[in-house]
Design brief:
There is one protein chain. The protein is mainly α and about 350 residues long. The chain has 17 helices and no strands. Helix 11 runs antiparallel to helix 13 and helix 14 runs antiparallel to helix 15. The longest helix has about 35 residues.
Amino acid sequence: MHSHRELCERAVDPLEIAAGLEAHGVTDRAATRFRHRDVFSLAEELYARVPRAADNGTDASDAAPYPARSADPRAGWALRTLLPGAVCAVAVAATRGADGEGARSAIAVAGAVALAIALTVALRRGPLRVEGRTARVSRLRVCWLLAYLLYGDGLLRLSGGAPHGTSPLTDAAAPLVALSFAVAPAAWCAHLLSLRARRGLADSRALADFASRTRPPLVGLLTLYLLTLTALAVLAELVVGGDRGADTGHPAATVALGALLFLARLLTVHHVPKAAATGLGTACAVEALALVLATAGRVPGLESLSAPVRALVDAGGAGAVPAVACGAAALGLLIHATVALSRASAHT
């Protein structure tokens, strides 16, 4: 009680004390030293014996450090998550309908700014909102991944002797549209996971019980998001993909990048930002290495350095590089998420 008095005073129910104890390393085995069968039972005694901050005249809204992760009470976030997709689709249509390279470039820049604003509005509220400010290094890594989506494939195709004349902005229209529309299903999956976790906290009597209740819906919702993202990627390729052909690997790269961004955001929302930053950094490093090797291969005597990249591009198109980089990083985050997000402390 002395070590965790502040946690107990600010908690609004025993479940939040149990989650806080778990976050501080108190397990069911440790609870037996205090003559309790599990952490939940220990939390109930602490909740009963420590006076609430609200009982001393403190406003309960100021006392509770663990707000429920429901999103906007008016459910306005559900509409805001559709905004990035709509803005991106309008920007792509306006860019392709403009006459002249200068007009297209101006519209593309304006569309990029509008898309950034729409993403900020969509993520500021709702289940994908991050409490506090995200780390600047994570934002830079996300910007790198998106920049590679715009320019990396074109540079790799150029080094591999692909035809000239395609614009990176036009080339990346389909992936950008798919990822923009994927914000909505990502928010809904995060919302459903939060609801299921809160229900599991109420029904569970032990940490292991909560973990067993949380993992199946977590895997199911991640699978649902991946299926939705795949459908969006394929549909975007059919509608706005142009005549680039089916050998570029863009749908796979889009799905891999979308899965990586969703898992990284989900882990950041649930207090695991270091793992998210590591996953994003790994994908950035692999893509940067691919560009370095492809460029070094053009130097006489160093052609062998680009052989792995060329083989990967020849097998799956230029999109195979981000597909492998982001897919491997997303797989690592998925394994970590099944463990980290099955803890009670991740949902308070």
